[in-house]
Amino acid sequence: MSLSAERIEAIDVVRGFAVLGILLMNIVGMGLPATAYLDPTFAGGYEGADFWMWSINFVLTDGKMRGLFTMLFGASMVLIAERAEGQRPGPVSIHYRRMAWLLVFGLLHAFLLWWGDILVCYAIAGALVFAFRNLTQRTLFIGGVCILAVLTTLNVAIGIALEDLRLAASQPGAAPADVEAWAAASFALDPPAEARDAEIAAMGGGFLEAVGGRASNLAFIYPELLPFEVIEAIGQMMIGIVLFRSGFFSLGWSVGSYICLAALGYGLAVPVTAWLAWRAWDADFDVVVLNEMGAWSAIPRPFIALAHASVMLLCLRQGVLGPLRGALAAVGRMALSNYLLTSLITTLVFCGFGLGLFGALSRAELMMVVISVWAFILLWSGPWLRHFTYGPFEWIWRCLVRGRIPPLRRPAEEPPG
After folding, report:
1. Is residue 409 part of a domain?
2. Fewest CB within 10 A of the end CB: N or C in the chain?
């Protein structure tokens, strides 16, 4: 294997690891009412094994795997643009066609399979970040860090303001405006049981009922949360471009640098995030405290994400992954297909037109679904790529972007990857 191929494989391995890790958090939104994603008391259980699953995910995966995947999206965006230089159509045309069709995929995915789709966010953020891809590494890094810092400051300020609003609304003779504002905020943070039951009923019904249930969630997500997600993704993609150009994702850093970054993430950022989780638990998962701790957790989040990536890259460099290396690389090369197929599988598991398990499994029991999906993804990706050049959805995406149908079946003499 050439050095170039090995470096590309390193990116695929980390991407495959991130694709698997994202499901640890996504499964909560797929199998339980939406609010349970943030509030463990809403559904799914928060004691015993369920508490430990919430704690582990809050500390190690919540926002970290998505953040790592977003950084890799920025890296891949630049890699694809570089490959398109000197070709027709050129990198600008190719990129914006890709983002346009990714937006279409994302909207279909959100309404038909899962409301927690990230592709719409990536399409919007990717279209905006691309214009800045040729800035210096220093400028991109400072810009990305500043964007994330401003966003975190805003979210923390919102959390503090919610606490102040609740206090003001609870005072005797509280102003009607404060009472009304807190009622609206508390409904969004802690919906009544009727809303939870209605979502379970919708997802337990037929296909159209499930689409309606997702549409109800998206009616809140798109205007209220999507702008924040896009801003965060822009910052993370900018940092991802810098990491790619500096050689981080392609084994270009020294062993000592990877070790230092892993030590920073696990030695400092993980304990800080664990303390935030303890604060939420100590407050009996009060929704305002949960929201505020979630906002603060954005500070250590990138360090934990990069610590995960550093460990994977060190394992890859030391050759200790064994057969898992090829399996993860195949998963990473088919990231879009595996992401969408995961949603298709879980839709059939949880919705009423499938097994109808939505809302029926505890937080810990959902991990059995995760393990089963992981097994499928790891087992099918490699054999598929031994026979075909692209994943099925990557091939469709390429057809739409290029306006022609490239060969799907791999020539017999051509190796995968």
Report:
1. no
2. N
